[in-house]
Amino acid sequence: LILAGAYMTMRWILRPLKWLTQGVEHVSQGNLDHMVPVKRKGELADLARAFNNMTKQFQKMLHARERLMLDVSHELRSPLTRLKVALEFLPEGAAKESLKEDVGIMETMITEILETARLRNGYATLNLKATDLVPLVQGVVAGFAGASPGVAAGEMPATMPAFVDAELCRTVLKNIIANAVKYSGSSEAPVAVSLFRQAPHVVVEIRDHGAGIPEEDMPYIFEPFYRVEKSRSQTIKGYGLGLNLCKTIMEAHSGRIEIDSSLGEGTTVALFFPEQQEGR
Ligand code: ADP
After folding, report:
1. Ligand 1 mean position to 240 CA, how many Å?
2. pLDDT in tens, 111-160
3. Longest dimension (CA), the chain
4. 3-class DSSP state for residue 271?
């Protein structure tokens, strides 16, 4: 009885430590809304309070960073539009083409930042509809005709209904296929796009035989502005915003994106779209 009593008392005393451990796990997984319970007095309660304050400070800092990026992006839209108009009045030539390309890149970046924020903060409503993914995927694949090393639609069923926002679905597919093409050499096997059902999801799989992603970079590739290896990034254009937008779009669909990659061998991206309207 004494041993059982001592065991129970120890467990009771050490409970705040368990709460703190759970708190650390939540925060390390990016859940900054988690607060550690502060129910007693003493040093462990002080530690829990300090932990909660630290999490709140992190949240504030992240929010400020996001706000700054959004405000800057928003403010850049009008001068960029003026720049585009002014560019039309310039005489044709290499300088005009190069400027046009730069303005185009800036416009894509700003659109990606604002679109990600709109979806993440719930300001954008998805235009979810029952959509046949077969013609949609084939349409996107056809848009890459002539790209090296080529994009081929693998085996596909006759129809594959899913509950998606067709426009955003196209955006994700274009981004992922463009990456597969971008990070593959022209002599490598073509990028293969296949479509299959894995209830309750419809999966679009994009497989390439390109450069692959080093294992140590895998945890960060969805972070905004994260790019693998400086040497590779210098030769291939990009800003590290594409995968961040794709992940946000997939999560807004209550779906997910999974990436499997081995360095030097290739990358497989699986996009899980919901098959049916939620709750049915
Ligand atoms: P970027 O504009 O740099 O392509 P993304 O957000 O689309 O940005 O991708 C982030 C990083 O992930 C890229 O810089 C690239 O190094 C890596 N990556 C993404 N897709 C692939 C792929 N199919 N093969 C190899 N590396 C990839």
Report:
1. 7
2. 989 988 888 877 678 899 999 999 999 999 999 998 889 999 988 899 99
3. 94
4. strand
* Sign of CA pseudo-dihedral 70, 182, 139, 250: negative
Which 8-state DSSP code applies to residue 276?
S
Cα 76 to Cα 65: distance, rounded to the nearest angstrom: 17
**Separation of CA 93 and ligand 1 centre (Å):** 32
Question: How far, CA to CA in Å, does 208 sit from each of 64, 171, 172, 211, 218?
Answer: 38, 19, 16, 9, 16
Atom of ligand 1 nearest to the CA of 243: 6
> Whose Cα sits closest to atom 20 in ligand 1?
179
Strand 151-153: give its sheet, edge to edge. Answer: 151-153, 191-198, 201-208, 266-274, 256-262
Angstrom distance (rounded) from CA 61 to CA 189: 45
* pTM exceeds 0.70, yes or no: yes
Cβ within 8 Å of residue 37, ≥6 positions away: 16, 19, 48
First to last CA, the chain: 53
**CB burial readout 160-197, b (16+ within 10 A) else e:** bebbbbbebbbbbbebbbbbbbebbeeebebbbbbbee
